[in-house]
Amino acid sequence: MLTVYGDIRSGNCLKVKWMLDRVGRDYRWVEVDIMSGGSRTPEFLAMSPAGQVPIIVLEDGRPLAQSNAILLHLAESTDVIPADAYDRARMMEWLFWEQYSHEPYVAVARFQRLYLGKTEVEGRIMQRGDAALDRLEGALTGRDWIVGEGMTLADIALVAYTRMAGDGGFDLSTRTATRAWIRRVEAALALEPYG
Amino acid sequence: MLTVYGDIRSGNCLKVKWMLDRVGRDYRWVEVDIMSGGSRTPEFLAMSPAGQVPIIVLEDGRPLAQSNAILLHLAESTDVIPADAYDRARMMEWLFWEQYSHEPYVAVARFQRLYLGKTEVEGRIMQRGDAALDRLEGALTGRDWIVGEGMTLADIALVAYTRMAGDGGFDLSTRTATRAWIRRVEAALALEPYG
Asked: Alpha helix (H) ranges present in chain B?
């Protein structure tokens, strides 16, 4: 059986859970306590040299890291990867953007408040997180999905931390296209609304 | 004809040039001076809302951003994308790792020294860049290529800033597997050795 090593509060890990549930694949979830060094043990680093969750270990024992690489692998040949080459390329663009320009700010602000208990997050992180959320709001205005006419991995990857942005001190109340899209993606993934 | 908007000194932009040259696709290169605001004009932001180079504009006028998404698009159905599903997933893992854990340190240190003229780079950036280069050295020890038995996009994406790491103040002299791999990838791409 496939095994996931993850932290159930982490958006990057939840993405993987949602995709496994969506494709109906059997899996075992092993909770890793990253705050008490669970992702720094020799056993864990042997599977995940970057020391990051989530990773999956396939039925034959081979590991795979990086949440968006895992999503792409699990979603191969399913309808959340566009058949059109340009739409597929745009989906990839958003997946890389999510990890480069959104997660390092929107998720990190949440991590600092929720995991580390900070009451103030560095201004640079909040500014860049707000810029990422603004860009997403612009992209979603007048659209139901980020790319094309249906839900893709871009929506699944980006909703993970966007729906939790309030935990990091970001304000979604004026971002109305984003809020409607969060509810749309949650409904498509059969999730309870967050927060 | 396809158009690239890029900065010829940027590893992220050079990746795209190398792939276009490799697949033999005609293109026009438009140099963008990011230091004088060339990536902040309304015209540029209309094509690249994230304000980043490189972008490509396809023959029909549609834009595509994010260097690794562009590589994947240009390389579709070529031998630098593994046919095996697991190898392909590992290649994707390295592409996301490159943008999350390597480029923000190895490239940013170089940017601060070369573009901004700084003589000292923040310790955190140097430490994380060294950690990324150490991980790469470990992965390359005893191997010719990062994934599988031939050059993939993981090699092309990671060599871009690794070969220039000295510009950022990193020391490649003791990283012998990495140095041999750099020469191997440069030869495969018909590049002059860097530095």
From this structure: 11-23, 42-47, 67-75, 85-97, 108-110, 123-140, 153-162, 176-188
